[in-house]
Amino acid sequence: MDRVTLKQHLALAEEHVAKSQKHIARQRELVAELERHGHTRVAEEAKRLLAQFLELDVLHVAHRDRLKQKLDG
C-alpha cells in the first residue's frame, strides 16, 4: 500500500476511534441514567451493549496503531 493510501486509511481509522469513544461516553451516560431511575433490567442490557462498544473500540485503536506503525516504518 502506498503512503497516500495509508494516510487516507489512517484518517478513516482516526474517525472510527473518535466516533467509537463518543458512543462509549454516551452509553455510559445512558447506563447511569437508567440506574438512577431504577431501570435495572434495561440498565443491564445497556451495560452489555457498552461492553461490546468497548471491545470494538479496542479493535479500532489497534487498527489505527498498526497504520501509524506502517507510516512510521
Overview of this structure, please?
With 73 residues, the chain is an all-alpha fold. It has one domain. Helices cover 92% and strands 0% of the residues. The chain has helices spanning 3-36, 40-72. α1 (3-36) packs antiparallel against α2. The chain is rod-shaped, with a radius of gyration of 16 Å. The relative contact order is 0.17. The model has no long low-confidence stretch (mean pLDDT 97).
Q: Please compute the radius of gyration using only Cα atoms.
A: 16 Å
Mean pLDDT: 97
Give the end-to-end Cα distance, rounded to a whole number of Å: 13 Å
Helix content: over 70%
Q: Could you give the order of the helices and strands? A: HH
Broad shape: rod-shaped
Tell me the count of domains.
Answer: 1
The structural class is: mainly alpha
- How many β-strand runs? 0
* Count of helical stretches: 2
Low-confidence stretches: none
Question: What is the topology?
Answer:
Layout: H1 3-36, H2 40-72
What is the gist of this entry?
The protein is mainly alpha-helical and 73 residues long.
What attributes does this structure have?
mainly alpha; rod-shaped; 2 helices; 73 residues
